[in-house]
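Here is an idea for our session: we take a single protein and study its fold together. Once you have written the record down, we can walk along the chain together.
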Amino acid sequence: MAKLNFYRLDRSAMFSLQSDPRFSYCTYVPKNYDPAGEKTYPLVVLIHGSMRNAYELRDQFVDFAEEKQCALLAPLFPCGIEGLDDFNNYKHLRYGDVAYDTVLLDMVNEVSGIFRLNSEKFMMHGFSGGGQFAHRFLLRHPDRLSAISIAAPGTVTLADKNSPWWVGTADMEKQLGVPLRPEIMQNVAVQLVIGANDTSPEGTMVGEKSTFWMDGINDSGHTRMERINSLATSLSAIGVPSEMAIVPNAGHEGDKIQGAVKDFLTRFLAR
């Protein structure tokens, strides 16, 4: 059993994942967490963006965790796992020899063996690159999610039977091991959130020289606003409802949309 001392309680240090130390995570448990107690805590998983700000993202949700008595898990998926120019690895769930969705689930299992968590199903939020990971995790693992907030992804995977993964889901079973399961996705509370001023094409258009180039990758829109609306339409077409939050006076700024995210999760927990 892992020691519950100042390295782990409250705002934890960054810990290497035991099953794959290339990856790490930090956590937060409410201050009233009693190692000898019986109370269990819902889990919120926070997926960082491209700059890998896991600590910062965790700290930005501490107020929510205290008020709602939730635990937080913020994974760190470093750049450079598959070489010096490996920047976007985790965003598509699979890259090189790594299944990033499995890495995350290993983290959930590890922290669930340390703290008393309700983690069979958990909540998730991801912004920008984290929003890319988050909505693809919803497509692959809807059975593990209770609620998800998907914020301003730069590229999106649509529920399209005619396009291959990761533009669409035609060969999803071959690539990820399971087909699309809309009937399970329908059980997950879904929020799509974006700043009202997040309308620049910068950072969204994929060029033909990119390692992630695929035919059709830019068909979902030229801006994050267009792409998140395409994602909403795609989810609706397979019977998966979502709520859209467009945050006034916010651009591509994760901290400015967090109020809407916390409001969504608060309403979900109050059900």
